[in-house]
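Quick one:
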Amino acid sequence: MLLLVKWCLKTCYLYGRFTGVLNFKFDFKKGHSVATNKSTICSAASHLLMFSLLIYHVVKSRSIASLWKYANSLHGYVLMVIAGFRLICVFLALVSRWSQRRTFMRIFESFWSLYKKNPEIIQYCQRGILSKYFCVTMAETFQIIATMVLMRNQLTLALGLRIWAVLSLTAVINVIIMQYFIAMASIRARYILLNKNLRMVLAETRSLNPNRSGVFVTRCCCLADRLEEIATEQSNLQKLTEQLSKAYQGQVVCLAISYYLNMVGSFYLLFSITKYKGLTQDTSLIVTICSLAYFGFYYLDCWLNTLNIFYLLDEHNKMVKLLDQRTLLRPGLDQRLDTVFEDFILNLTRNPFKLRFLGLFEIDRVSTFALGNSLLTHSLLLIQYDVEHF
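Output:
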């Protein structure tokens, strides 16, 4: 399984280079990022070609009524809004990539250094990475199959390029989200190792007999050193998370809006297929199956993204709860060990672990629940408008 995970990570890197999301080259032997002329030109050319074809696609596209004779004007407005915001969001996300290229190069180096120092972290995040990779791959595959079957009778070189541009838009979104997913999963895996070491330190501390002997003082000093190392590692991880969140905040906000609109539109589309039977009467069975499979993997992918962040927050909370056991330890410990414990607890209290983006929202279970309610509300409002007016 470890080899499979490494293959997935390498594929993600190459896919990022191909889509231009990674507008620099990384030397895995030296662990350094390099912004070569070749990588810059290839990324810029890829983005320029994609947006040029997308603009051409918008200009040349026929109305929704020509595709679905039973569609109403609301379907056209919904799809136009989703497509417009999706295009704007991806454009802003890529602008953020170019404006912060040096920052992303440093972050890439930091995570490579984290892996080289702690190669065992792969074992603790391999299931999440493989699940994410599988969902993204399957969703893109079913989307491509459905698109090609729909357009098989009118496929030309020009139309093929326009389809490629639209699918590239999805690929860019998936690459950005995948990179963020892997980064957060790696941080969570490192937290798991730190919590494991912290449990060992607490267990050994509980077994101490405060008799002030030389052996007792030596063991206390050793435990203090280990605890200090854990505290330093946790502080570095939190700083790395803050750097990552700051670098990704514009992209996360843009893609969150895109995901939100896609979900609202998807709920409305499913309702429309049920209400307007004519929407799918000319659609082949394979397109229907691929479309349903695509939506299934799409929602599963969104759920995995959410769980990945929740699990990271949970690991940090576990560390806080483990340190709360400090009050259960025997009195009379070495002063230095006591000081390290107090400093560690004080540092976590002063710097709570939170994921904020542009000051607009914070990712946690409460905000996600509120987002789910908002999704349901807006979907129902859209459906209600359709029922009343069409």
